[in-house]
Amino acid sequence: DTAVSQTPKYLVTQMGNDKSIKCEQNLGHDTMYWYKQDSKKFLKIMFSYNNKELIINETVPNRFSPKSPDKAHLNLHINSLELGDSAVYFCASSQRGGVLNTEAFFGQGTRLTVV
Amino acid sequence: AQSVTQLGSHVSVSEGALVLLRCNYSSSVPPYLFWYVQYPNQGLQLLLKYTTGATLVKGINGFEAEFKKSETSFHLTKPSAHMSDAAEYFCALNTGGFKTIFGAGTRLFVKA
Q1: pLDDT confidence of B98, banded at 50, 70, 90?
Q2: For labelling, which of A106, B40, B46, B71 has a CA lying 20 to 30 Å from the CA of A25?
Q3: CB neighbours of B59 closer than 8 A, spacing ≥ 6?
Q4: Average pLDDT, integer, range A43-55
Q5: Among A68-72, B14-18, B99-103, where is mean pLDDT lowest?
Q6: Could you give the CA distance from residue A10 to residue A86 in angstroms, rounded to a whole number?
């Protein structure tokens, strides 16, 4: 059983399109995240949700809109895709985000390529 | 502000040699520290974590790390490198908020 699963694994699309990435966790965790990993492997948090509520929005352009229909799902919708959006996007979850020693569990990543 | 600095974006060792990946942190409150490993085309996997108590932490695959508050360091070591250890390694810290801050990563190469 995959703990944190995201789909699709690869996404190639043209500039200006709108796309979504889905994420589901079956760990019963309260907190979910989206991270962006650029071509230099740098990981930067985008969003953090706790029990379906947005906790952190790290100055991400409003073309990116996360949606959490329940605490097991956190989807990422991206409007008007730009070349600079090309990256690997990771979904993650943790048991309780505000607790110090809780580690994050990561999905396999979605490699987004905008052409 | 909290930050994590990993010294060396690339480290190359021979198989059987000592692995040492360096991590320094900056935090105004006691940090909780993590090491994650990322294999090619995979997500991140937790290697080990420091919370409180013993400063020498043992993780999976023979890795360990030592928390040194006086040096604000959390270096990762393994006595004998194996080819399967080749991967990207990330040091990370959490200070109780809803985000974990990651270092820039260190790519470990293992030569036969």
Answers
A1: confident
A2: B40
A3: B35, B46, B47, B48, B49, B65
A4: 89
A5: B99-103
A6: 11
- The owner of tokens 């109780």 is B96
Residues of A in contact with B88 (CB under 8 A): 41
Of B32, B46, B99, the CB nearest to A45: B99
**A100 with B32: Cβ contact below 8 A:** yes
**Amino acid (1-letter code) at residue B44:** L
B11 closest CA partner among B85, B95, B98: B85
CA dihedral A86, A44, A25, A6 (to 10 degrees): 10
pLDDT at A40 over 80: yes
Most confident of the following: A39-43, A52-56, B104-108: B104-108
Q: Which positions in chain B touch A50 (Cβ < 8 Å)?
A: 98
Task: Determine if the peptide bond prior to B31 is cis (ω within 30°).
Answer: no
Phi, psi (degrees; rounded to nearest 5) at B83: -55, -35
Torsion B79-B84-B89-B91 (CA) sign: negative
